[in-house]
Design brief:
The structure holds 2 protein chains of 2 kinds. Chain A is 43% helix and 13% strand. Chain A is α+β, with helices and mostly antiparallel strands. In chain A, strands 1, 2, 3, 4 and 5 form a 5-stranded antiparallel β-sheet that branches. The longest helix of chain A is centred in the N-terminal third of the chain and has 27 residues. Chain A is globular, with a radius of gyration of 19 Å. The longest helix of chain B has 23 residues. The N and C termini of chain B lie far apart (45 Å). The chains are: A alpha+beta, B mainly alpha. At the A-B interface, α1 and α2 of A face α2, α3, α4, α9 and α14 of B.
């Protein structure tokens, strides 16, 4: 391999190392280092009665961004409410999976239509969560998932908080 | 389905094929560089064409667990190697070979070892046990004057290790499928374990019967250490390793497996008075960097909607071609093999909702209520096993590196082995139901029978009589351990 190519390939390897470092730095910065141990096995997933994927909260902590979209497949609310919380929230309506703003503005569903969520931002899922702790109990490592959920709830500005599922 | 998603998917597939076919020479751009450049291209397109990008979403495709497992496995392998643990294991295997059980017993036990003690990532056991697989492989190759046999042992062991995260109850990929599909924990564990036995034998058979003639292997013998009597610390560290493995699987301690491996490494270092430098010999950077690069490109594809396009194409095929939902379901099950990623979790998370949707449609069309479970169990196994043949830093790369085999040779026999073995899981789910109890005599008998059959086939593949006692007893022992653990 030519010297210039060695330098180029090494630079790309450095990008990978930096990517990994960022991955580790995020949870440390958010004081949730335990998320680094998550196996991403989703054993917690089947225990949530709201269909929230609790491992998504781990993803949010690893990514260092509460706006990461995670699965939440059993939260029912009105379309207008869904669009108000997050216009890009993916909802299920009439056997379609679409963004809330698309259902409201392009497909012209009535604002009062009851919809079921599909993918929502982690911070919104944290607001939906009833904090029963079933996810923690089903985790094979017993990771403190509620700690991350509580942190996400606390970060959210009071005016955006979801009153609760309708 | 978006144009951007379609372009991204095409870009990824074309680059992957070009890298694997050698159209982009490795001496110019390494596979990792190709993947990162593809990821950068996809992300750039997404930024220019698509709506505002949520950068953090790229991270969600990455799973740290297989990376840290590999590192912990490599370090522990280094410690065991330096402490003489593998010398001790080889000496024990040597003693077994002088009994009527012979080498077939040792081979059946070793290649199926990762699935018996199913860990949340196959790399955990693949890395530390690789030297033992090499010793056994070269020993049988020497006896039969056939170097193909070394590759059979190594890749039989590796495909087994790669797939072994599917049945693991301590955070394996199977739990991911069961969790997302809302099936009880461990529903598909036993059927998958049985199917992995079939995958292992089928992979070894593929190498023996078809791909052996194309094998170009530069390693002529197992890397041997200085000839010295096996130190006491070797036996001690090897016994410690086995004891801790049994404890982990039996007790299911809520402690990350990496922590346990690292603590064991420290204990072995203390017992055998090793330095940190002794541990570093076994570390291979290529599988690690390729794994990270695979995650980066998967994150880019996720952001650009590449996986959504894939799902949309499958639905189109199901609704507008003669394949229908049943035909496309089979395609879906084996999709992870066509797009073999360095970790099955990447494609599983993206496609399991689609798999469940297909399962539901098949159940409606056929009136077969267990269709979603059958489809999911098969998909999860195919997905988990796909890290074996993946050229993007899959577990098979560890074997190719150790045996110095160029050109991702092991991908095809492994992929075909998986293709032949996965249907067994699909058959066992309806036969014994979801989550069959280990105490069910019918199920235990099936497991023993499959174990014994795997043993007989291993005997034949390695040139022994079909009823050689070593293979048969080894197979029965493997089946029995799978029932119990």
């Amino acid at each position: 391999m030519k010297r210039s190519l060695v330098i180029f390939n090494s630079a790309i390897l450095s990008i990978l190392v930096l990517y990994l470092l960022a991955f580790i730095a995020n949870p440390l910065a958010s004081r949730q280092p335990w998320v680094l141990f998550c196996y991403k096995c989703k054993a917690c997933n089947s225990s949530c009665i709201l269909g929230i994927d609790p491992q998504g909260f781990v993803d949010a902590a690893l990514a260092g961004d509460p706006r990461v979209y995670i699965y939440a497949t059993n939260v029912r609310l009105r379309l207008s409410k869904a669009a108000a919380i997050d216009p890009n929230m993916v909802i299920m309506v009439a056997d379609k999976k679409v963004a809330a703003h698309v259902a409201l503005n392009e497909l012209h569903f009535a604002p009062d239509t009851e919809v079921v969520t599909y993918q929502v931002q982690a911070r919104n899922a944290a607001q939906f969560c009833i904090r029963c702790g079933a996810c923690e109990r089903s985790c094979v490592l017993g990771l403190p998932l509620l700690r991350e959920i509580n942190q996400l709830r606390d970060q959210e500005a009071p005016e955006v908080k979801v009153s609760h599922v309708q | 389905m978006t144009v951007l998603g379609a372009i991204s998917l095409m870009l990824f597939l074309c680059a992957l094929i070009a890298a694997l076919r050698g159209w982009i020479p490795q001496r110019v751009l390494t596979l990792q560089s190709v993947l990162v450049l593809v990821a950068l291209a996809i992300i750039s397109l997404r930024v220019i064409v698509g709506p505002p990008i949520l950068w953090a979403q790229i991270f969600t495709a990455t799973s740290l667990h297989p990376i840290t497992s590999t590192i912990a496995g490599f370090l522990f392998a280094g410690a065991l190697q330096a402490a003489g643990g593998f010398q001790a294991a080889a000496s024990l295997v040597g003693r077994v070979t002088h009994t009527p059980l012979g080498l077939p017993f040792a081979i059946v036990l070793l290649v199926n070892f990762p699935t018996i003690f199913a860990m949340p990532c196959g790399r955990i056991l693949a890395a530390p046990l690789m030297p033992l697989a090499l010793v056994l492989g070269f020993e049988i190759a020497r006896l039969h004057q056939d170097k193909t046999m070394a590759a059979m042992v190594v890749f039989g062991f590796l495909v087994n290790a790669g797939a072994s995260c599917a049945p693991s109850l301590i955070g394996g990929l199977g739990l991911l499928g069961e969790g997302m599909g809302r099936f009880p924990m461990g529903s598909f564990s036993k059927p998958n374990q049985m199917a992995i036995l079939a995958i292992t034998v089928a992979t070894m058979a593929m190498i023996r019967l078809h791909y052996g003639s194309t094998l170009s292997m530069r390693a002529e013998e197992a890397p041997a250490g200085p000839s010295r009597p096996v130190p006491e610390s070797g036996y001690l560290s090897f016994i410690l390793f086995i004891a801790v493995l049994i404890a982990i699987v039996a007790v299911r301690l809520p402690i990350p497996i990496q922590t346990i491996l690292t603590l064991m490494t420290v204990v072995v270092m203390f017992v055998a008075r090793l330095s940190f430098r002794d541990l570093l010999g076994g570390i291979m950077l290529h599988p690690l960097s390729a794994l990270v690069a695979g995650y980066v490109v998967a994150g880019a594809l996720l952001t650009a909607g590449g996986f959504e396009v894939l799902q949309a194409v499958l639905v189109l095929l199901a609704e507008h071609t003669v394949l229908g939902y049943i035909g496309v379901s089979i395609l879906v099950v084996f999709l992870p093999l066509f797009l073999a990623m360095p970790c099955g979790r990447i494609i599983s998370v993206s496609l399991i909702p689609g798999v469940l949707m297909f399962g539901g449609r098949v159940a409606e069309a056929s009136g077969f209520a267990l269709a979603p479970a059958v489809l999911l169990a098969s998909f999860v196994l195919s997905s988990a096993a796909s890290c074996g043949p993946s050229p993007l830093g899959g577990v098979g790369n560890i074997g190719e590196g150790r045996l110095r085999i160029p050109g991702f040779w092991s991908s095809r026999p492994q992929a075909l082995g998986i293709f032949l073995g996965v249907p067994l899981a699909a058959l066992l789910v309806p036969l014994h139901g979801i989550q069959p109890p280990a105490s069910d005599p019918g199920f235990a008998l099936t497991m023993l029978l499959i174990g014994a059959t795997a043993g007989v086939l291993t005997n034949i593949l390695f040139g022994y009589r079909p009823h050689h006692i070593g293979g048969v007893i080894g197979g029965l022992l493997v089946g029995g351990l799978m029932v119990m653990l």
